[in-house]
Each structure stands twice: as C-alpha cells, then as structure tokens.
Request: fold
Amino acid sequence: MAEPYRTHAAGPQLIGRTVIYTLLILFALYYLMPLFVMVTTSLKTLDDIRAGNLLALPAQIGFDAWVKAWGTACTGVYCGGLKGNFMNSVSFVVPAVIISTLIGAFNGYVLTMWRFKGSDMLFTGLLIGCFIPFQVVLLPMAQTLGWLGIANSIPGLIFVHVVYGLAFTTLFFRNFYVTVPAELTKAARIDGAGFFTIFWRIILPLSPPIIVVCVIWQFTQIWNDFLFGVVFSSGQRQPITVALNNLVNTTTGVKEYNVDMAAAIIAAIPTLFVYVVAGKYFLRGLTAGAVKG
Amino acid sequence: MNPSLGSSGQALVRPRRGIADYVETALPKVVLGPTLICALIFVYGFILWTAWLSFTESRILPRYDFAGLVQYVALFANDRWWIALKNLGIFGSLFILFCLATGLLLAILLDQRIRAEGFLRSIYLYPMALSFIVTGTAWRWILNPGLGFEHLVRQLGFEHFEFPLIVEPKTSIYAVVIAGAWQSTGFVMALFLAGLRGIDDAIIKAAQVDGAGPIRIYASIVIPSLRPVFFSSLIILAHIAIKSFDLVMALTGGGPGFSSDLPATFMYTFAFNRNQIGLGAASAMMMLMTVMAVIIPMIYSETRRQRHG
Reply:
C-alpha cells in the first residue's frame, strides 16, 4: 500500500506536504469557481450584479431569475422559458437511452457468446461509427428524416440518437461480456438452453454493472448533445441545450446574466445529479467510451 | 454444430436438429442484423452520400451531377476556412498541451497518499458531466469584459486592467482554449491516475536501492512508463478538438466576426445557414479525413494488442 517513492508526512517533508495540499486546494477552487459564479449570479438581481463583482455573494438571495428562466424567458419571439424544452429533452433522452442500451446488450452478447465467421470484422466495422465526426452524416440524415416523415420531431431525435449511439452501447457490452467465462454458456448450451434462455438466465443477471455504466454514459451524452438538436429540430421542439444557447444569444432588451446562469444550471442539473449519485460508474463509462468526445 | 462436443453431447443435441437448429444458428445473425444494416446505411452509406455531395455544385438543394473538385477548390480558396484551420491548430495544440500538463500534475499530486483524495478527484472531474453549452455559457459570462473577470480585477484596485480576450478577434480562440481545458483536464487526470496506480513497484524499489531520489524516480521511471497513457490521452484530446462545435457556439458563436471559427462551426454555418450544401459537404469530408488520420493508428494498435494479448 505505502509505496516508498511517494512522499511521507514526516519531519522535513512537512513543507512538501503543505505545498502539495496548497496546490491541490487551489486547483479545486479553480475548478469550482465557474459553478460558484453560476449559482451566485443566478441568485442576484441585475442591480446587484452591476454593483458587485463575479465572486461577491448576493446581497439578497432571490429566485426570480430561476422562475423567469423556467417559465417566461424569451428565446427569439417565444417567451415561455425553458420548461417546454426541458420536457422535450426528457421525452427523447429516456426512450433513446433505453432502446440503445437494450440493443447494445444483445449485440454484445452475440459478439462474444455466439461469434460466427466474420463477426470480429463486423465489430471493427461497427466501431468506426464511434469515431466519425457527425458533421459527415448531417446532410444525408436531414434529408432522410424528411423522407421518413420524422423531421423536426421527438421520434426523429430518438431515431438519430439510437442509430449513432449503437456503436457505443455495443462496445460497452461486448467488452464486458468478453470477461465472462465461456464455460458458463457452453455448459448451458450442452444442456440444450437456447439463445434467449441463456441471455435471460445467465447473462442478464451478470449485467447490472455494465447496464448502469451504459445508461449513465448514454444519458449524459444524449442530454448534453447540441449538434443533432440544433440541426434536426427547430422552434419549440428543440432540446434544452439548443434552447439555452438561443436564450443566451437573444439580443433583444437588457442582457439578463442572472437568467442566463439560472438557465444554464437548469440544463446542467440532470447530468450533475447523475454524476453526484453515480460518479464511479460515470468515470468507468468515460474511460471505456472516451473516444466519442 | 460444435465439433468439440463429446459423443454424449451429440446424443443430446441430435434430436433438436432440423428447423430448430437452423433457427439457432441464424438467430445471432438476425439479432445483430438491424445494427449492421444501420451502420451500413447511416454511417458508411451516409459518408459516401456526403462525399458525393462534395463533388457536386449543390447549394440550397442537393444536386447530383458530378462537378469534380470545384467545392474543394472553393473551400481552400475561402479565407474563412483557412482561419478555421489555423484556429484548429492553435486550439488543438494548446488544449492538448494544457490538458496533458495539468492532468499529469494533478494525478501526481493526488498520488501522494492524499486525504480526501476521492473528494478532490470528483471536484476536478465534475466539468466532464456538463454540456459544452453550459460550460460555454458560464465562461462567456466570466470572461465578458463589462462585468466579468476584468470588472473584478478593476474593483480590486487595478483600475486600468484590461482583459478583452473574448471580444478581440485576435485572441478569441484562446478563450475557447481556457474553457475547453477547464472542462477536459479532470478526465486526463483520471487516466493518468489509473496509469500511476498500475506501475510495478518492484522497479521503483530497485531504483531506490540504487539511491535515486523522488524527482529522479519520477523523471526517469514513472513518467516514461506512462507513455501509453500519454498516447491514448493525446488521441482522445485530438479527437475532441477536431469535433469541437458546441463549445465555440456557446462561448463565442465563432466570433467576433468569424475569428474563432473551427472546422465544425464552418461546416454548420455553410451547410445549414448559408445554403452552401456542396461546400459544407466538402468541409465535412475534410474533418472526417483529419479524424481518421488520428484514429486509424489507434484502432490498428488496439487490434494488434488484442490479438497478441
């Protein structure tokens, strides 16, 4: 445990320890600063913002900016706040996460327990889908969604996020199932258990950890997506990230920084919540799925 | 179907041969089928489709008459594209450099048997859970000259302090670097920390027996043995940099003017706001080729490692 090359908290090393802790705390303050600024700004009045500075605490805590961001702030000509967009995001993120995770689980199962000739090659081919810059599919997809009759709709966004999330969910499950001993399923096969029986009785009970990782990853990615949202939806059908960006860029009237910050926090709350309650799984997904960016 | 089964196994399986057995062998392919078809159409097919569009004179509507390289010629004659490329160079290199340097430093500091390590780690990492749009919105407010950081320093008594980073065309791309590095450093730290924890202590002990001090050990043993982590972090960060879109849109909108444009914002502007589909497609193909140049070495080394491991 105590690797000897790491510094010890004894005698002459005390100065070294102080330096290390000071640096760590300074960095922590730096990383927390934007969140602090967002929260305090959102609780201030506009006069308070002008009178004070970035790091000053609110003279009086008020939730007016939050109420406005949620219910009455204007994005363009529409003045209904972000609540509709928040619900939009919920209504396509949840189905897209469930569908892509489910399909990914079956794909991973096939690619490890039921490999066939050429399946490894197909997997590599599928993996390319994790890496492409999505700009390269936007124009054809815009046209295709029109043909399918789901342009600018919630089903359209579900479709796009499922299609481009599959490579990732498949990768997660495949890399997890590779570690399951093959003897488990071989024995079951000899006993005559079929494809779905083995999945249901043996594989699925082993899967909760990877399901959590996959769901968290997909949720964070799809909730935070901006590119698909801004290209494939418009007006009041837009997801929260696009609405936030529009709200901040609306130039009519006085610039209300407190409303902007409240809106940004509203957009961030779901993923921050997931991070706080399941940070360990979040990190695992991040390292496994880092390439998506 | 399984030649390794013993005779008893054969006897058990034999009665189920026929249709049931055929279904059993076809089933995995049927299950995988839809995903493969999706990848074939929506990834490979669409790439070819975009490639085709990039060879046409499509403007507001797609047209499919082959027009050769006109869009690529137009792209590389476009000043704005060159600015986007130059910005990608500046942003990419500084972003990668900052993330690697700070990430490594934080990982080494955290690896000194620190109290509350988990707590500090989660502080460094939380920005990764945020949308780039949220990050961009926050930093846009912090960096705005009127009431942001500049105002703060002036209130502290430096009345002539100026910090117009985000509103000056010459420096706006550096604002993107600051916000991008703030968001992604914690992740690089996590990768390095995992790497540090995986180093074999026996080598370190041997070096200590030879009388090497901590700095010497870090410089000549620990950091060199993190080479694979450097390599994968570099590729991941380059990949993030090339695809960066949301952050620029929220932070500067590509401005002032188009001084902080990146290839991704260029593509979006021309394909969807300016109705230059052909030019947008050509810029998207250039992005794809850049990403592939970064990614293919990684896929290659990954598959090699798996085959040998």
Q: What stands out?
A: Chain B has two domains: 7-54, 70-308.
